[in-house]
Q: What sequence folds into this?
């Protein structure tokens, strides 16, 4: 198995869009109802990168089988040191360490950029694979919001987990930036 974690590029958008389409149509790991097309996914990638956040692709034997990115947790200025992570892995690559490799690199990239906290918003407590992955990487359960979303004909609880990055809350952050 040859796994490569690297910055994502626009050439990866078709594979990324295909992975995400399954999540939208069949699962509750995202709360979107309509599958975004490749143009929309490319625009989303451009916005993440333009804002200075990392966006990664995982290649397994030359094929893109997963992706991860960080983005703003909330838009207010005081949240500028906190990021929310997203990680998606194609069905064929599940259980092969792709998600863990993506998350480790995403954490390192966010720490290098000076972020201090990472939040995971997980689309329901039944997503034990994601919860266990985050726990193994140092995330702690912050809480479960009951019936926060409606998708596929049912109410969904939403799990939130958090992990310190770098110094976390041990020291004040560096000077404010225009993130």
A:
């Amino acid at each position: 198995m040859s796994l490569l974690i690297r910055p994502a590029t626009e050439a990866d958008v078709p594979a990324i869009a295909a992975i995400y389409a399954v999540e939208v149509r069949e699962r509750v790991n995202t709360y979107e109802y309509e599958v975004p097309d490749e143009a929309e996914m490319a625009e989303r990638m451009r916005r993440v990168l333009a804002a200075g956040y990392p966006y990664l692709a995982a290649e397994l034997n030359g094929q893109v089988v997963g992706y991860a990115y960080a983005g703003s947790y909330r838009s207010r200025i005081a949240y500028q040191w906190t990021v929310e992570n997203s990680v998606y892995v194609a069905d064929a690559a599940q259980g092969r360490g792709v998600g863990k490799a993506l998350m480790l690199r995403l954490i390192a990239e966010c720490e290098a950029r000076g972020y201090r906290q990472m939040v995971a918003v997980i689309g329901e407590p039944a997503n034990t694979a994601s919860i266990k992955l985050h726990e193994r990487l140092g995330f702690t359960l912050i809480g479960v919001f009951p019936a926060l979303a409606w998708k596929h004909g049912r109410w969904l609880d939403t799990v939130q987990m958090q992990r310190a990055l770098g110094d976390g809350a041990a020291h004040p952050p560096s000077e404010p930036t225009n993130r």
